Amino acid sequence: MTQKKLDVVYKREFINFPKRIGPAAVREFYNQMGIDYDNDMEIMTYIAPDVAAQKAASLVSDKQKENFKLLDLGAGTGLAGAALRRAGFLGNISALDGSAGMLKVAMEKGIYSDSTEHILTSSNPLPYSDHSFDMVVSVGAFGKSMMEPDCLQEVLRVLKPHSYMIITVRMYSEVQDYKVRFYDELDRLEAAGLMKICSSEKFPYYKWDEISDDFKVKLADQYGEVLELQKLYIN
Ligand SMILES: C[S@@+](CC[C@H](N)C(=O)[O-])C[C@H]1O[C@@H](n2cnc3c(N)ncnc32)[C@H](O)[C@@H]1O
């Protein structure tokens, strides 16, 4: 791969990302992105979907993998759904995303049982009843201008009691305010006895070492975390 290619992709996916506006701008951004997204992610060695799927698979038995009902929250073009299938999840996987363009690409892959175009905010809750899912996986959708930390409790609502939510996040340098709000909310939910943080592991989300110096990329920003959260009781 040429350095130029990596630079083009980095610019398209990160420099052009709407920084201070809300979910509507993000939807516009991703609606245009659907066609290039999978190829761009491959060029940047994006491994978050597989990291999340492996974490999900490590928590359940082979029998559970056969019929677990999963939600891929912020499914995008279906990279996490595909990773979950590769990890052996054979049951229903529902896709939810705010971008019709991304969901269209996802549904063409034939991975998901159903899809819902929906922007999750604190005032626009998930269109599912309580305790609908055996597990929720959300890869790269909690972040600045995307899903806000105050939506985490709503996600717990649609999980069955004692079930897991696997989230990957990348708290890069420019989103330290979001990072504080995110971890404060996890602390609040844990202190309230609604969920437990079972594990949190750092991993290389992308591989950016060869991006041109012109972009002044901070290499620490290519790392993210996979979080394993367990809903503790009926709420
Ligand atoms: C970085 S992409 C990740 C997509 C996919 N999970 C993956 O790993 O490739 C983030 C996705 O979250 C969706 N998204 C962001 N904020 C959202 C919100 N508040 N409600 C619903 N979807 C949202 C975007 O439309 C986009 O498809």
From TrEMBL:
SUPFAM superfamilies assigned: S-adenosyl-L-methionine-dependent methyltransferases (SSF53335)
Boundaries of every Methyltransferase type domain copy: 71-167
GO function term, MF aspect, one: arsenite methyltransferase activity
GO biological process: one example: toxin metabolic process
Pfam families: Methyltransf_11
GO CC term (a single one): cytosol
Protein name stated in the entry: Ubiquinone/menaquinone biosynthesis C-methyltransferase UbiE-like
